[in-house]
């Protein structure tokens, strides 16, 4: 019988929870789970253990050297605030701005005369700081706004509708709208949206699923909404809805959970906005991504990975949307990933197609002919950074025609807005973040290194002007779910570098920095490649003299927390300290909790014998080894997290505290908890508090800060 090695008793210094002799035989594997009782926060033993962990971490984190200096600098760097690229509706522009003294962004509208009016300020709605603005969508006439808010980190969005002109509340709250898109019909009286079925209509363990597409009339009881689509899809399906600019077409995108394979339906709308039967264009069984919309030129624009893992753009007649009728307008670029396209028109000139690509995670923007796809010119961007939004003025107004509105950020520039004019072919800064006065004195480079199997991987490195290596270095990454880590303003990175350290971000397989093939090369049976890429990044930083193993720290959150957990259990000697935030760590039982069942396509399922073998090979919780000198570790969790259950960190923390042979004073293993906050958005104050604890912990271990 094959087995997974049991941990051995180790030295104390930590709370000593009971270790149960729980062993399961799963598909011939002997799987030990001594801390399963920590899965239940209501268990009195769990409550007592958590209280002891809180006392231990509070005492240790409060006494870290230099934490007040770090907190002050992080707070100052976050005080730059931010501003988003405007969304245009009928001469009005809608945007968010976070001022230098604000905890959250405020949603504003700016009229054609430049007058700004705040629309949604969650700090006014809830002075406690526990409410966040999740999503917002103005009507195409710009006179109504649908917005969604949630409280306490649960991401359970409540949908409201307000009058833009008067601020009057017209509708809501409508519940069960988590992750719902809004597609307004012309006139602003109705919209399509996504809402879950009532909890009493579905099995108890499926209440986070069973989404449907509905048509809603503003002000009416949502119980009277018209069901449009979704009842025949599997219960984990997510949907996204869109109505074309001319109001003539409804498009429904869907995917099973977080899987990177899409379905697309299209339906023609009659004069009253009623759809015919949605027509299936592409099915998720084909295993490709697709995003489509009917543009102002009347054509269906289709951005897809079908026969092009880095993406291509096709066009078609929306009356004949099947792939057999597609015409390729932009071919796949073999070294860049297609991210977005926008049709932009200038008065008296033919329209042009703005094309956003990322090349090795760095944004590029070009203009092309709309009929041939031929490249016309490049749009100048400030440097190595990320285009966060690419918007145009809407067709109901001529104001600002022929102009692109570009959301921009880079490692030293807080989110700001730039514009590009087709007329004078120039880009200019439209609005900086409110507190951005000068760029921090930080240098950056992008370098390449070779992973274990010979694959070339890229890594961004930020470093101080006075570079006397080796320096304390913080390495991070993500490597999953086709999420790309691109250059972005990161106050924690800047604070680390300004204090005298090096900060590095590796573009690991499993992400989408090099397209869908890059993602697939790091998922399921290939997941170990992600960890190999990370180890290789660490070794490269050491070999090239940036740092040394006793000065190398790592951090990651969510799937990146899994990355950190695997890194320290596979190569504990390579890392001096680690922060593991909202992590996924028990890969045998992850599917049983919260949204875990959505992720089996990314990781594999313990229900399948072969896939259980993949998971056990790297599952951090199951690969903790007794009498091992583990690096200092800080597990950071959020008790209201509705994505990744904090139980992962609880079980792993207990296992490592039991197993480590390193003294508490040298390499502490701590659990940091927060309540009434979840996996996503949070206030600035909470962000500063968490970031200070994380950086101070790593700085103390690596020698970056000493009293």
From TrEMBL:
Its EC number is 3.4.21.26. SUPFAM superfamilies: alpha/beta-Hydrolases, Peptidase/esterase 'gauge' domain. Transmembrane segments: none annotated. Keywords: Hydrolase, Protease, Serine protease. The keyword Magnesium does not apply. GO terms for cellular component: cytosol. It catalyses: Hydrolysis of Pro-|-Xaa >> Ala-|-Xaa in oligopeptides. InterPro entries: AB_hydrolase_fold, Pept_S9_AS, Pept_S9A_N, Peptidase_S9_cat, Peptidase_S9A, Prolyl_oligopep/macrocyclase. This is prolyl oligopeptidase.
């Amino acid at each position: 019988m094959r087995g997974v090695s049991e941990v051995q008793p180790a030295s104390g210094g930590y709370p000593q929870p009971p270790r149960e002799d729980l062993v399961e035989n799963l598909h011939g594997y002997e799987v030990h789970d001594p801390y399963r009782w920590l899965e239940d926060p209501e268990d009195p033993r769990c409550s007592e253990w958590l209280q002891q962990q809180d006392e231990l971490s509070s005492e240790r984190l409060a006494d870290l050297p230099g934490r007040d200096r770090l907190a002050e600098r992080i707070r100052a760097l976050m005080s730059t605030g931010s501003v988003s690229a405007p969304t245009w509706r009928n001469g009005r522009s809608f945007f968010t701005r976070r001022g230098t003294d604000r905890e959250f962004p405020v949603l504003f509208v700016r009229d054609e005369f430049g007058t700004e009016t705040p629309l949604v300020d969650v700090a006014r709605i809830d002075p406690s700081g526990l409410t966040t603005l999740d999503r917002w969508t103005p009507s195409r006439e710009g006179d109504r706004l649908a917005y969604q808010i949630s409280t306490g980190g649960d991401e359970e969005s409540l949908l409201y509708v307000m009058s833009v002109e008067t601020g009057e509340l017209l509708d809501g709250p409508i519940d069960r709208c988590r992750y719902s898109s809004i597609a307004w019909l012309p006139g602003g009286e109705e919209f399509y949206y996504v809402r879950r079925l009532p909890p009493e209509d579905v099995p108890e363990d499926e209440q986070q699923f069973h989404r449907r597409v509905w048509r809603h009339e503003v002000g009416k009881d949502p119980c009277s909404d018209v069901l449009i689509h979704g009842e025949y899809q599997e219960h984990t399906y997510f949907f996204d809805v869109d109505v074309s600019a001319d109001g003539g077409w409804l498009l429904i995108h869907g995917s099973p959970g977080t899987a990177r394979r899409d379905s697309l339906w299209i339906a023609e709308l009659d004069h009253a906005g009623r759809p015919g039967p949605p027509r299936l264009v592409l099915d998720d069984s084909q295993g490709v991504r697709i995003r489509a919309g009917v543009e102002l030129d009347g054509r269906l624009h289709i951005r897809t990975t079908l026969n092009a893992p880095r993406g291509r753009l096709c066009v078609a007649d929306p009356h004949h949307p099947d792939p057999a009728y597609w015409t390729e307008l932009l071919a796949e670029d073999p070294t860049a990933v297609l991210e977005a396209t926008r049709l932009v028109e200038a008065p008296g000139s033919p329209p042009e197609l703005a094309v956003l690509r990322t090349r090795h995670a760095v944004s590029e923007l070009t203009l092309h002919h709309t009929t041939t796809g031929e490249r016309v010119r490049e749009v100048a961007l400030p440097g190595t950074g990320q285009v966060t939004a690419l918007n145009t003025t809407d067709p109901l107004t001529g104001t600002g025609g022929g102009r692109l509105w570009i959301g921009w950020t880079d490692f030293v520039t807080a989110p700001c807005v730039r514009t590009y004019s087709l007329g004078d072919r120039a880009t200019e800064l439209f609005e900086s973040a409110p507190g951005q006065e000068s760029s921090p004195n930080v240098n950056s480079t992008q370098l390449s290194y070779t992973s274990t199997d010979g694959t070339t991987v890229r890594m961004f490195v930020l470093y101080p002007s006075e570079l006397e290596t080796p320096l304390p270095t913080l390495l991070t990454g993500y490597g999953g779910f086709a999420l790309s880590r691109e250059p972005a303003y990161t106050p924690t990175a800047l604070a680390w570098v300004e204090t005298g350290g090096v900060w590095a971000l590796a573009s690991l397989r499993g992400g989408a920095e090099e397209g869908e093939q890059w993602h697939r090369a790091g998922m399921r049976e290939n997941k170990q490649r992600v960890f190999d890429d990370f180890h290789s990044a660490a070794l490269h930083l050491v070999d090239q003299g940036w740092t040394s193993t006793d000065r190398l720290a790592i951090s990651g959150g969510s799937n990146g927390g899994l990355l950190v957990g695997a890194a320290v259990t596979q190569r504990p000697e390579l890392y001096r300290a680690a922060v593991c935030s909202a992590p996924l760590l028990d890969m045998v039982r992850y599917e049983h909790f919260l949204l875990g069942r959505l992720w089996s396509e990314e990781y594999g399922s313990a229900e399948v014998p072969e896939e259980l073998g993949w998971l056990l090979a790297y599952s951090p919780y199951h690969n903790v080894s007794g009498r091992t000198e583990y690096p200092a570790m800080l597990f950071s969790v959020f008790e209201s997290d509705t994505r990744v259950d904090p139980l992962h960190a609880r079980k792993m923390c207990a296992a490592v505290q039991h197993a480590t042979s390193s003294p508490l004073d040298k390499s502490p293993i701590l659990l940091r908890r927060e309540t009434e906050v979840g996996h996503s958005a949070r206030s600035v104050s909470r962000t500063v508090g968490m970031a200070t604890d994380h950086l101070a912990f790593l700085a103390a271990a690596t020698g970056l800060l000493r009293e």
